[in-house]
Amino acid sequence: MNTAGVHVVGVTKSFGEVEVLHGVSLSISAGRMLALLGPSGCGKTTLLRIIAGLEQPDAGTVLVGEHVLSDGRNVVPPERRHVGMVFQDWALFPHLSVAANVGYGLRKLPAAETRERVADALAMVGLGHLGDRSPETLSGGQQQRIALARAIAPRPSVLLLDEPFSNLDAALRGQVRTEVHQLLAELGITTLFVTHDQEEAFVLGDDVAVVREGRIVQQAAPTAVYARPADRWVAEFVGDANLMPGHADGRLATTVLGPVTLEESIAGPVDVLVRPESLAIALDPSGDAQVELVEFYGHDTVSLVRLAGDEIIRVRTPGAPVARRDDRVRLTYSGAGAVAYPRTP
Ligand SMILES: Nc1ncnc2c1ncn2[C@@H]1O[C@H](COP(=O)(O)OP(=O)(O)OP(=O)(O)O)[C@@H](O)[C@H]1O
């Protein structure tokens, strides 16, 4: 694969009076996979369509490698961008065979070359034997791989995926996601995919760009986004977050959980981010916290615990529950270098 990096600089876009992208910039290095993560309506699909050339930005620049695809003066049409796209509904043509679907973007090539490229793309997704079938006769996971084969058949430099798993039922989603993950890792093609699902973004993304209301609020590795979210909103969007009120003095905050070491110096009233799995729970008849609810998930247990100050906190412990509803308990914080956000009145 002849892949290339993607650079988006200061892209804005309005529909009518409403600006939906406010100066978005992001970069993906060649061969990396970036998840664009955000709630419904935040502008993810619009950004993807701008990179594909299906929408024009009002301002800003889009580059693939060294090639400027759009900069307010010049616009390269979608078919000359070397960008492959997989849509949310996969958009397979029901009246065409699998092979004809995969070859759809190759119609300008000589027939023999088209046949070869279709066979290559189908082999890459492990479905070389299904070329003559009609898409409707295939499973959801297979159809999804055909859509991927169609996107890679023209040998694009970049792949764009719009909510690629949302059409699959929950039972199939995990399995297909792993298959596609494996495939994309083998292809080594620069990929940008859109999702509103934090787990999907973390599992697939080498990096995650978190989008909120038309702005990228953080772009970093999934582990960094989870451990050090840029703000409270990101903290709560990318997983369970307890925001514990406290008072910071340098690298130490005093909270109802006791003293917590902070990653960075800060002073004054703060909310300290405490992930549920960084707390341990122990039975203690004289403890001033009480278990309100226990949810056992098999691999772990989530307990809702009411603290002395009446705050409810989520605690995630491995394996079976250690305490039951109404038990008195003691919580200890075992995380290192917590993140604290200044509390404004
Ligand atoms: N062609 C259009 N005309 C007018 N408004 C549009 C158009 N396309 C998108 N919008 C609006 O732009 C905003 C961003 O939409 P977009 O589809 O990019 O969001 P999204 O984050 O991908 O959401 P979802 O996950 O629901 O698809 C929304 O308010 C949407 O209604």
Automatic annotation (TrEMBL):
Q: Kind of enzyme, top EC level?
A: translocase
Domain ABC transporter: where?
A: 6-238
> What Pfam families would the database entry show?
ABC_tran, TOBE_2
TM ranges: none
> What is one cellular component GO term in this UniProt entry?
ATP-binding cassette (ABC) transporter complex
Keywords in UniProt for this one? Answer: ATP-binding, Cell membrane, Ion transport, Iron, Iron transport, Membrane, Nucleotide-binding, Transport
Q: Which InterPro entries match?
A: AAA+_ATPase, ABC_SmlMolc_Importer, ABC_transporter-like_ATP-bd, ABC_transporter-like_CS, ABC_transpr_FbpC, Mo/tungstate-bd_C_term_dom, P-loop_NTPase, Transp-assoc_OB_typ2
Q: Which SMART domains does this chain map to?
A: AAA (SM00382)
Q: What is its EC number?
A: 7.6.2.9
Q: Which PROSITE patterns match?
A: ABC_TRANSPORTER_1 (PS00211), ABC_TRANSPORTER_2 (PS50893)
Read off the CDD domains from this record: ABC_Carb_Solutes_like
- Which GO MF terms does the UniProt record name? ABC-type ferric iron transporter activity; ABC-type quaternary ammonium compound transporting activity; ATP binding; ATP hydrolysis activity
| Origin: domain of life | Bacteria
> What is the protein's name according to its record?
ABC-type quaternary amine transporter
